[in-house]
Amino acid sequence: MEPSPALVLDDDPSVGTAAVSTPALAVDAQYWADPAPLPLDCGQTLSAVQVAYETWGRLNAAADNALVVCHALTGDAHAAGVAPGATRPGWWDALIGPGRGLDTDRYFVVCANVLGGCRGTTGPASPHPADGRPYGSRFPPLTVRDIVRLQARLAQALGVQSIVAVIGGSLGGMQALEWAILDPDRVRAVVTIGASLAHSAQGIAYNLIGREAIHLDPAWQGGDYYASGRHPDRGLALARMIGLITYQSAESLRRKFDRRLAQDSTAPPDPATRFQVESYLQYQGSSLVRRFDANSYLVLSRAMDLHDLAYGRGSLAQALGQVPPHTRTLAIGISSDILFPPGLQQGIVRALHAAGRQATYAEIDSPWGHDAFLLEYDQLTPLLRQFLATVSDGSHRGVAGHGSR
Amino acid sequence: MEPSPALVLDDDPSVGTAAVSTPALAVDAQYWADPAPLPLDCGQTLSAVQVAYETWGRLNAAADNALVVCHALTGDAHAAGVAPGATRPGWWDALIGPGRGLDTDRYFVVCANVLGGCRGTTGPASPHPADGRPYGSRFPPLTVRDIVRLQARLAQALGVQSIVAVIGGSLGGMQALEWAILDPDRVRAVVTIGASLAHSAQGIAYNLIGREAIHLDPAWQGGDYYASGRHPDRGLALARMIGLITYQSAESLRRKFDRRLAQDSTAPPDPATRFQVESYLQYQGSSLVRRFDANSYLVLSRAMDLHDLAYGRGSLAQALGQVPPHTRTLAIGISSDILFPPGLQQGIVRALHAAGRQATYAEIDSPWGHDAFLLEYDQLTPLLRQFLATVSDGSHRGVAGHGSR
Description:
eight-stranded mixed beta sheet, globular
């Protein structure tokens, strides 16, 4: 709960924690080419889809010890370990490893880069199979369900018969909830952190600002910028800056920066005055540009807006009625989250209970806002450990069709 | 507390209230040319400064019945009444008039457009005295104190001997607090609504986003766009959209829009899906462009960032020590304000008490966020009426130098 100055100039909020990856952790970025066309909710179909993923631990003989970790908007498959040549561990390294909250001595952990992303899985910067040029403006709009359907195919391809739990925060938490409905026979439990049954009006509003910032950058060129030598770096940086404000809180920004001046800055009212919070946001905005694609930001933030468990399923109650009665859900709220306030996680639990389904609420007490799911490992570790211990093993899940294990 | 759908497509949140201006209210935009150069906190000096202002009611013989109303970032001097040719009353019309909270039968109410603005008072779009061309990028950075010093000169020019109260919300509330320090002999009371002792790190962060949006618009041209025929309309609209989110709350956006679709929009996941909250923000952003100048937005939002009562006065305690002991302050918080949470108003009262000064806290219970100061007249009216009744008349204020009244 102390101020966390180490965060100030780091690219990733997960840096600054005490946990450091052990060399024993395997880091193997792998690629899977989906042999079948992927029909999307929008009516279009993607073909020649590739998925980048990493795994930790080993799939057991029954193929029923998998944990699926879903990343957030600008995350990627590299959830744990130090990649060759990299200096930083993955974004959930403190949670994934031998003896950690997601214990790789026991579980087979899989994390895939999302469809529409830009870190190895097919997205707007990928070559269109028809002409080999980047999709750009031709990339179709996606839903969280499209993202999950592709990952379920990956799980199938990896031979996973049963998933102990699908776990994710933010956009990852939205995916986890959809998994329970879209792959009910395989998924035994869901952990959703800082997410919601449907994206809020305020969340849609913030995402709109980010997209308009990218559209405003003349280098965006309607989305077909890849061959031009100009990328919408300023627009993407601005979108990131807006996001970063919503991932924190008034209190976390006060603790980290208050009204302190940036280094070498002059005091107000000098026109050259720069506050630390400004240099932080500008630095972080510029940092994202080096590892992320603006069109992916557009597609994935829109997928968040479209997230609504009820959509196309009649009603929320009917949608949740598709979650099997044996599926367990842990919804974790973050006390200071301004983007997904705790009430939204409590709403998930209430709705599941109303549908006669199992669900538990837990709350991370943190001043760091939405980002707490990337920071508060001391609280997340026991929550995850205890919850996973309550999930029945594959032999008790009572689902027909997997009796051969 | 009911949903307020009338707000959805209106330019100004003050519209949609029951109050309608009575024709009996005088609406007289007037202009005052400051004969003296105005030294600014940044070290520069402005000359040939003009102020646009409106007044309601009459200054009494003792010239001690004035109320000064200070407007917010994109407001103007037209606080009440219907201007000739206009269809809408001023932004605080429901509070200013005969028998209203700020009773024009009793008080002489003055509201001036702020320095740096674009509604009649000298700002970046005004002609530079040296060459008659708009200031543009030559306009100096301002502080809230600069804004208040000019208004104090106006009060002097209008013959106001004593001010019953300076009243404002948001940037207007910051001005009110500075008035108490900068013109201590004239000001008997201050009402500050949704403001703070110093702008918060989160507030600075949001303002940075708005300025970067304007800077990102190629039509901004470094601020010298007036003669080019191209104005940074898209950047200003985006800045406004960001502001609007912070003026509301997750709950108010949920009540007004939730996930409803815009008229004639198709349902998700169709790529053409548009949510009402998106069309609302885009409409409101475009609306501001018709009445506001992007450079004024830059200058005034920066003045908010620089707002800090302690700056240049040693410490906060020393700054508040300059408020006379007889000055009364009413700090009004708004329960759902995400830009100036109630704790900031409570902080004003605590700091004044610690300095041995009079101060009272009151809270507006509202779901509408920061905008509540433009909406919750049923709560504001009795608060203002009761508070003003406690302010001593000029003869009891115990200040030397005005005994000739």
